[in-house]
Amino acid sequence: MNKTITVLGAGYVGLTTAALLAHAGYKVYAIEPNKKRLDVIKTGKSFFFEEGLDPVIKQAIDSGNLIATDSYEESVPHSSIVFSCVGTPDNPDGSSNLTYVFSAAEQAASLMQEGAIYVQKSTVPVRTGERIIELFKSNGKNFPYVSNPEFLREGTALYDTLFFDRVVVGGSDKKAVTTILDTYRDLEAARDTIAALANVQSTPRKGKYIATSLNSAELIKVSANAFLALKISFANSIAKLADKVDADVVEVMDAVGADERIGRAFLNAGRGYGGGCFPKDVSGLISSGLENGIDLEVMQAAQALNRSMPGYVVEKLKNHIGELGDKKVAVLGLAFKSGTSDVRKSPGVAIANVLSHAGAQTVAHDPQANDEAKEDLRRDVVLSDNALQAVQDVDAIIIATEWPEFTSLDLVECKEQMRGTVLLDAVNIIEKASAESAGLQYIGVGR
Ligand code: UGA
Question: Is the pTM of this model over 0.90?
């Protein structure tokens, strides 16, 4: 078995996987069809913001262990493993568009060497693997196919991949499953060296290696994301109640989450979840349920609750400053979470658009995502290069992303720049007392 790998698609998952495996004893081809992105990767950088990734790419490119290309012909025939990490954009109905998943599989299969393993890392609805195996067969191919779901988070992609909780590989070909699990053992053996290069904190954590059936692996991925989304929506529904009964959802979740059976993670209430994964995976799971005659009501409720959150935040603001027609509001935070420039399904963008639609003069600022947000924002939302400039003469500030820059905002200075006094903390990161001592009226979500 040669140690050459092709990774199809060099997005968040593909580029991270490719760059890391290139430091774990493999020669890795990363295929990226987008010329602009490819050119950036060839210079030893990523085309998106991800902490620690650039030095890892740079060294791998310089050593020749990572080769960025747009050519399947140059890479696939030499590889014993092909990872599919292509995008799965949204269909208008919220389901995943699998066009790239199928076309990548078909194109790779026509070039793969006998016995090479096809690994699906893109998030796909349960039973997609069965369809790809059928596609291979209809082309006279019989490659081992495994599902290897990805659990990394944007912003902590390297840490999550190196110091994983679990690696899941599912498929009926036991030898192929073992080979892919072993690939991650090679990565684990190199992890401290890579972490030092990336300046990522090392931990001695021992993750689990889990072999499953193909369909279970596919279902594990979406179920994990759906459960985390459920936790957030649960926290947000309690936050709405806390707002009514004058309780503090942060205190509630700290104590609820102290129960080890529940856990504190993903119980942070606020403006709801966004990103390229949770919204899509929740609707994907609902669709898979419906296709199989199962009504996943609990997920439908979580989704509806999440969709209500940006509007809920703006309603809260209106309760304090009145109709928005003659108001000016600053939205701080457009990325769907801190540590990334990604604005897909971002609650901050949604809040800015709801404000502007309601007639408020809206100024927005994000430390990383201004450029990426431009396209998704209504035309009359004005982008600002820094937070203090954004809050000039505003009636209210809404914090919509938990960037450290916003946690440490100079609130006294903000108050001086503003014409109003309202600070709506839609991610619950500011201490109420420090806002009040700066002369601001603090409003959280569920506090
Ligand atoms: C998520 C999962 O956490 C990863 O395990 C998974 O691999 C990834 O999706 C994927 O499927 O590719 P990601 O979308 O990068 O990762 O971001 P998260 O950190 O999970 O946050 C998702 C959203 O939930 C963000 O908008 C965040 O602000 C929000 N959130 C998170 C809350 O509102 N409250 C919380 O307590 C936690």
Answer: yes
